[in-house]
């Protein structure tokens, strides 16, 4: 069978690759004889990565043709030779050199050409297009004699071209007819963020500009006149205003073409002639032209399978147009119905202006399915979102969390790799399904690189990298292969493993831990050091400022106060259960007044004092300690507060003394160091005024005793606590809480809240009940004893600090001066202080004199 | 010109110390290997004088300090921010003479 392919671009080459691969696997009646005509002088290269040609890549680097591909396959490639005519009756193709090549099957992969708007002046010197390596060569030559360059067209390709101009060292502008950039893929909000980002890179962006003519310039070679009367001068112009299918050969041969161009094809990629196929950007399927490479690849596969009568015949039934790319260092992704054009579509939008991040989800009218998304600046969610849409999966509850940032280590609603069907396409560039990745793992690809080379997944745009890893890890775990959860580059262990290593080896210093179990060549980092400090504190409970431990602490722990945005600290004295005497209140008030601190009642029923400079902290604490207060540990990953309602003592409905019990609990667990901060609440009756079900540990009084709830969470990812045990007396409840907390402290990951820890627990709540109530692991006594040790060794860190001159030295403003930091400036607002803004600091607004 | 700022015993290894050098706020660090580094105490991301309060460490072979506010890492040798190469801290030349720590200023 004689097959002639016209065009050797990305899609044409993919077609011959599939043909070479599959023809040998399928028993063919007649051997195939393949001829490829390539108009360019270079064999197929990666047009998607074209700009990298300017950052040092060579034509060879960009080549898509494996070494010896044509020699090995026996296929013939004619470089520098195009087709001028197709004679369908005689079944021949005439080449630019005049010869006639006979075919049994003809494949048109002629691609597209760049559209140049019909402007007067468009053919002037240094007016170019951006499509082939030859075009790039011309750009290089032109750039040498130019200072300013303009790209006409602010779409995906236009912005790529602008990057190329910038890389060539030109002052670069983008002129776009539409009122925003990338009008096809993204919406107004995203366009604004993208525009700001690209403008910040020094590229001039001119939107809503209709160029009417190009004439001689005054300061540059050309002057572009716009319909609104404005103009722009430039030495060089690149047209990148879209593409048009190259269908002239098909027209000449009398094949069906669309009203606006494109060779009409059906699901087998056949034209109206049963022996002629069209694939890629020259093809028109259901009135659509796909200007992306992934759909072209799918067409190539379909046509190849159709020609060799492959038993796994594939139909082309349309393609997803989602894209993820980096434009001038700016991450941009668009998925599905990005504009929310579907009837009833609703959207969630997250905009972070300071960091120039824009994210939008488009969901169905019933909120259950993802229809589309736009991501600018942070595209981490791309792979997961794409799968949700492609596989028509149900969205998790609180779908908006999929685009919200995670500040506190709380996990996002997970799109487990397990939830995906085996047929799900993970890598759409190379058409790799979840099943193929699983197969590769089964065949021995045990790491990411092996998967990549084994399946080609994640080797093109890389948008699916995170998902490929997830699928691989899930498979490896199923096979019993350990998946590493290293906390950082210094320790190849999870927090839980480090905890056990410290306990078993009685390790009490970071150096010993690093020498024995870490990368002892180097110092640690700001991830492993505080983790180690927290583990040591849970196990040995020594003072956080003891010398070898001091350098491990986050600033909050180191200065035992909460660092605020301007470098000052806030101070929170403990008010167990929220109970405070009038004298206590007066004392706190006098300290606040004396040091001119901002005071606020917190959500945890305490009083926070803001605006203390480093050197004031010991003075403030001295006075608070004298008034009977102790540290509230508001700065630590530790027990924060035990909130309570009024309880049976005063309340008409109270069943039990919630205040008394809250105080008892707070005093028991105060200062306990844990993977994340812990909050408790005790409610005196089921009216739940203390909101105990949103806490890590919630206690609610009933007629028969206390009900114990665990693993709730307020904050940015709320989770209701679950009932662990009911009708408990105080003593049993404390036992259970001891076991629960210690089990959490020992087994949770770094910065993992109880809610996330619980969600990741195999066996779920039943397992937790077994461990805590039924002592299924036989650990109950040990857990209780460890908690008792922490309780018995409690000390108020501040009391120790104010009596230790060595520690007090650290609160000096400077090692060589006692002058306060003059960059700390306050302004009055509602009768109290607040940090001055930069404008206020610059003296544009009067500031309050501070003593 | 060299100015004596403090003594080595004032510098707990791996814990930063703020100092005033000719009116400029400087953060001084003494690492495990005994090397002493000085960089600006002013965190360009938070615009607060807090670098001395950061945790020191080593990332990808660089000795670094992490800003305690938004956690960016700065190379102690060059002052360069690992997360954003367009940002860096001013660095100061440190000389240790016996027990004395001296910092150069211009």
TrEMBL record, chain A:
Residues 564-625 form the Nitrite/Sulfite reductase ferredoxin-like domain. Its cofactor is siroheme; [4Fe-4S] cluster; [2Fe-2S] cluster; FAD. Residues 322-390 form the NADH-rubredoxin oxidoreductase C-terminal domain. Residues 636-754 form the Nitrite/sulphite reductase 4Fe-4S domain. Binds 1 siroheme per subunit. Binds 1 [4Fe-4S] cluster per subunit. GO terms for biological process: energy derivation by oxidation of organic compounds; nitrate assimilation. This is Nitrite reductase large subunit. PANTHER family: NITRITE REDUCTASE (NADH) LARGE SUBUNIT (PTHR43809:SF1). Belongs to the nitrite and sulfite reductase 4Fe-4S domain family. Keywords: 2Fe-2S, 4Fe-4S, FAD, Flavoprotein, Heme, Iron, Iron-sulfur, Metal-binding, Nitrate assimilation, Oxidoreductase. InterPro entries: BFD-like_2Fe2S-bd_dom (IPR007419), BFD-like_2Fe2S-bd_dom_sf (IPR041854), FAD/NAD-bd_sf (IPR036188), FAD/NAD-binding_dom (IPR023753), FAD/NAD-linked_Rdtase_dimer_sf (IPR016156), NasD-like (IPR052034), NiRdtase/SiRdtase_haem-b_fer (IPR005117), Nit/Sulf_reduc_fer-like_dom_sf (IPR036136). Gene3D superfamilies: 3.30.390.30, BFD-like [2Fe-2S]-binding domain, FAD/NAD(P)-binding domain, Sulfite Reductase Hemoprotein, domain 1. Residues 426-473 form the BFD-like [2Fe-2S]-binding domain. Residues 1-295 form the FAD/NAD(P)-binding domain. [4Fe-4S] cluster binds at residues 645, 651, 685, 689. The keyword Iron applies. It comes from the Bacteria. Pathway: Nitrogen metabolism; nitrate reduction (assimilation). One of its GO terms (molecular function) is metal ion binding. CDD domains: NirB_Fer2_BFD-like_2 (cd19944). Transmembrane segments: none annotated. Homodimer which associates with NirD. Siroheme binds at residue 689.
Automatic annotation (TrEMBL), chain B:
It comes from the Bacteria. Gene3D superfamilies: Rieske [2Fe-2S] iron-sulphur domain. Residues 3-103 form the Rieske domain. One of its GO terms (molecular function) is 2 iron, 2 sulfur cluster binding. Keywords: 2Fe-2S, Iron, Iron-sulfur, Metal-binding, Nitrate assimilation, Oxidoreductase. GO terms for biological process: nitrate assimilation. InterPro entries: NirD (IPR017881), Rieske-like_NirD (IPR012748), Rieske_2Fe-2S (IPR017941), Rieske_2Fe-2S_sf (IPR036922). Pfam families: Rieske_2 (PF13806). NCBIfam families: nirD_assim_sml (TIGR02378). PANTHER family: NITRITE REDUCTASE (NADH) SMALL SUBUNIT, PTHR40562. This is Nitrite reductase (NAD(P)H) small subunit. It comes from Aquirhabdus parva.
